[in-house]
Structures are given as structure tokens and as C-alpha cells.
Amino acid sequence: MTQQNAYTREELLKCSRGEMFGPGNAQLPAPNMLMIDRITHISETGGKYGKGEIVAELDITPDLWFFGCHFEGDPVMPGCLGLDAMWQLVGFHLGWLGYQGRGRALGSGEVKFFGQVLPIAKKVTYTIHIKRTMNRALTLGIADGSVAVDGREIYSAEGLRVGLFTSTDSF
């Protein structure tokens, strides 16, 4: 794989099919659970901790699947989908660095929700700051992240943890 510093939706869909990092390695979820339309910046350095950074976006349209069911008469993007997108990006970063294994979210520290994504919004922006990457018996990425809608921060998460596993049979 050629390491790029940005990725289109088509390239992210290729990753969701397991065609980017090789068989059995990091993979993004397929639509509808793919919560990212593009990665506008990814690096091995930079970010708040100097250990890597990812900036990605999701275009919002009123016909997105979750608005029809969460909540009827009061449509809002579930906060857990924004949190999941941040885990997706940490796992993508591990695969992008060349680490092997299937990604699994392993938790987070403090998560705060102080805003919402409504159908009238235009764009969600995710920003991930890599704090630490370990490659021992387990490959682990730890990061802090934030979610903004139309330029206003609405969620934050500290200590996002994603691991890569060569076997998930006993997970």
C-alpha cells in the first residue's frame, strides 16, 4: 500500500472491503456504519502530542439513515456514531502505519457530548490526536478526539483505545 496523506470516499470504501491493508488487517466498516466520507489529513507526526493526527469529514444530508429512526419527530445523529467514527479513525491510523491485525475498539476515557448533529447541518469534522502507539503482544493505539459540526465542537473523547488482533477467536 502506498501511504497517502489524504483519502477519498472511494478509497475508504476499498478499505471497508479489506482491499487496502491486506487480508486479515485493519478494515473500516461498510456503509451504513462507515461514518467517514473522506480523510483530509493523516500524518505520523503532528497533532497535540506530536505522534500523529487525523482529520476526516462526513457530509450531512437530511436523508441519512439514522435521522429516520433516531428519534421519530426529533431527528438527531446518535452520539455513539460520532464516537464510533473516532475509533474507526484510530484503527485506520494503525493500519496506515503498517501494523497487522483486525481492529477492535477497546474503550475510552472521558467522553463528553455538548452539542448535536441535526439534519440541517452540512458537515461533521473529526479530529484525532494520537497519544501513543504500542506494538508488542498487542498493537494498541491511544488517542484523544473531537467531533465538530459546521465548525463548532460538539463531542470530545479522551483515551480512545483501539487494538489490532491477529486472531479474534477468543476476543
From TrEMBL:
<dbReference type="GO" id="GO:0006636">
    <property type="term" value="P:unsaturated fatty acid biosynthetic process"/>
</dbReference>
<dbReference type="GO" id="GO:0019171">
    <property type="term" value="F:(3R)-hydroxyacyl-[acyl-carrier-protein] dehydratase activity"/>
</dbReference>
<comment type="function">
    <text>Necessary for the introduction of cis unsaturation into fatty acids. Catalyzes the dehydration of (3R)-3-hydroxydecanoyl-ACP to E-(2)-decenoyl-ACP and then its isomerization to Z-(3)-decenoyl-ACP. Can catalyze the dehydratase reaction for beta-hydroxyacyl-ACPs with saturated chain lengths up to 16:0, being most active on intermediate chain length.</text>
</comment>
<dbReference type="GO" id="GO:0005737">
    <property type="term" value="C:cytoplasm"/>
</dbReference>
<keyword id="KW-0413">Isomerase</keyword>
<dbReference type="InterPro" id="IPR029069">
    <property type="entry name" value="HotDog_dom_sf"/>
</dbReference>
<keyword id="KW-0276">Fatty acid metabolism</keyword>
<keyword id="KW-0443">Lipid metabolism</keyword>
<comment type="subunit">
    <text>Homodimer.</text>
</comment>
<dbReference type="InterPro" id="IPR013114">
    <property type="entry name" value="FabA_FabZ"/>
</dbReference>
<dbReference type="InterPro" id="IPR010083">
    <property type="entry name" value="FabA"/>
</dbReference>
<keyword id="KW-0275">Fatty acid biosynthesis</keyword>
<protein>
    <recommendedName>
        <fullName>3-hydroxydecanoyl-[acyl-carrier-protein] dehydratase</fullName>
        <ecNumber>4.2.1.59</ecNumber>
        <ecNumber>5.3.3.14</ecNumber>
    </recommendedName>
</protein>
<keyword id="KW-0963">Cytoplasm</keyword>
<dbReference type="Pfam" id="PF07977">
    <property type="entry name" value="FabA"/>
</dbReference>
<comment type="similarity">
    <text>Belongs to the thioester dehydratase family. FabA subfamily.</text>
</comment>
<keyword id="KW-0444">Lipid biosynthesis</keyword>
<keyword id="KW-0456">Lyase</keyword>
<feature type="active site">
    <location>
        <position position="70"/>
    </location>
</feature>
<dbReference type="GO" id="GO:0034017">
    <property type="term" value="F:trans-2-decenoyl-acyl-carrier-protein isomerase activity"/>
</dbReference>
<comment type="pathway">
    <text>Lipid metabolism; fatty acid biosynthesis.</text>
</comment>
